[in-house]
Amino acid sequence: MLSVLTRITLLVAGIYALYRYRYRIFNRVFGNAMIRKLFITTSMKVPYIRNRMIHQAFR
Asked: How far apart are CA 47 and CA 7, in angstroms?
């Protein structure tokens, strides 16, 4: 069984890796057209996000 210090170290290393490679991960996930379309469709159903995006596009 892993000790608490080892678990914390692995957690911090995982968070650091996610932060360091965040753009690669983002591009890999949203490089798939179906996932990108699902994300955009879902986010446009949230009024706050939709209003912000429309305001940014049509100033």
From this structure: 39
